[in-house]
Structures are given as C-alpha cells and as structure tokens.
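Entry 12.
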Amino acid sequence: MGREHLQHLWQKYKVDIAFFGHVHNYERVCPIYQNQCVNNEKSHYSGTVNGTIHIVAGGGGSHLSDFSELDTVWSIHKDHDFGFVKLTAFNQSSLLMEYKKSSDGEVYDSFTITREYKDVLACVHDGCEPVTLAA
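Predicted 3D structure (tokens):
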C-alpha cells in the first residue's frame, strides 16, 4: 500500500495528524493532500483540516539523521536535535501538539487543532448526539 492509498484513507476518515519515527530528526509539514498543502495556517487549525499534518518525531535513538538538501515547500519546521512530541487533549474538541528538545525541555514547535467532534463524524444537521461516550 503506497502513500497515495494512505492519503485517500486519511482523507476519507478525516485524519488530522500522522506520526512517523524511523528517521532520526524532527519535521512537521503543512496539512497535505495529494502532495499539496491544503491550508496555509501554521499554528492554529480549526474546523475540518482537509489534509493530514505529517510529523516525523524521531529525535530519540542512536544517531540523528541529516535532512535532504531538497528545499520542500510543505515543510513548516525542521530540527536536527534530540527531542520528543507531547500531545495534550484538553477535551474532545481541542488538542495541543508540542515538540520539545531533550536538552532543555523547552517548546520549539507547537500547534493546536480545535474542532467539534461533529466535524469528524460528518453528521447531518442535528444528527449527532450532543456528547460522545468519552465525555
């Protein structure tokens, strides 16, 4: 199953974020669909994102990987250091993603996604329950 098949599934099921870790560095790209940025926002996404934000969170491991010399338009943030990603879900509608360096624990990249769960379920008008089972 290639990237094109995965993009189709991510779009169908409204996947906002995909995490990868094999490459040992950090990179975040814009929300992408069919190999193109579909949203110019960089720090706060609200409503339906319409693409998938790809995050390489591979800053832990035996060695760091160099970035390609290719200058990509979809890359929002890159870091060649040891670090980790922290996700904080405030409720069923709000998520904070933070990339922190291991050396000092400071945040070097972050964004939020805020949307109603109805946006995910694609409910018809007033067709969704007022709360989810997670509430």
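Annotation: The longest strand covers residues 83-91. The chain has two helices and ten strands.
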